[in-house]
TrEMBL record:
Coiled coil: none
InterPro entries, per database record: Polyketide_cyclase/dehydratase, START-like_dom_sf
Name of this chain's protein: Polyketide cyclase / dehydrase and lipid transport
Organism whose genome encodes this protein: Haloarchaeobius iranensis
Region (Disordered): 92-117
Top-level taxon in the UniProt lineage: Archaea
Name of one Pfam family that matches: Polyketide_cyc2
Amino acid sequence: MDAVELSTVVDVPREEAFEFLLDFTNHERYSEYVSDVTRRGDGSVGTRFDITLQWWKLSYTLTPAVTGLDRPNRIDWRIPKDVHARGYWGLEPADERPDAADAAADGGRSTGEDGPATRIRLRIEFDRQRSRLGRLRLPPMVSTDWVLRRIKPLAAREAQQVFERAVADLEGERRPVDLEFHVRPSTI
């Protein structure tokens, strides 16, 4: 099983971040590669999301499902079809504020003085051996390896952009976001 795990700190309480993450329909606003998100369910365990990804001449719909909720600490999910992935959004109190250096520079003011900051952690585990993404219908003369070589460099940049846009919605203004990679497979 391969895994990717990354985190960042946001200047909002855990409950607010939890509710925000539970509404996966926000994701289409954060990525140019997500063309549509449809939620089927009320956000509780069993809720499914149809997330349509588009890149180049390819289109694919992922269908993650919420498999567990521990409010306001964790949202577990899985994608059983094709990708065979599972993971979670973890939320924990943060020791530091995301803008601590900026706060010192501007006299100690912080955007989140009213409440605690939260570390948001995203963990994704996937099984390359069981993945059926290689069965995508590709244009003639285009190999899966060619597509993967083009997608890999986009992954880190896209994660950064998605997190920055989401954090801007959570905190009310755009700022640089420090992503900390805890686990990263050698292929990414």
